[in-house]
Amino acid sequence: MARLLSMANLTVGALLMFALSDIAGWTWFENSASKIIVFILSMLLVGNGIILAFREEEAGVRRSRGAA
DSSP of 21-58, one letter per residue? Predict the structure, then answer.
């Protein structure tokens, strides 16, 4: 479940960052206040996805050491 949540956070965060960039030419966010809020949200989502991925990997290492 943590892996699914991690991938979802990374995907949504990356999509928001892509929407903020001028690569796509999308105009989802018009004013600077909404761009700042979306930037902060996308950084939180990406950070949370990375933390969940490392936490799950760490738990797997602990389980394999305990079984040995």
Answer: SSSS---S--SHHHHHHHHHHHHHHHHHHHHHHHHHHH
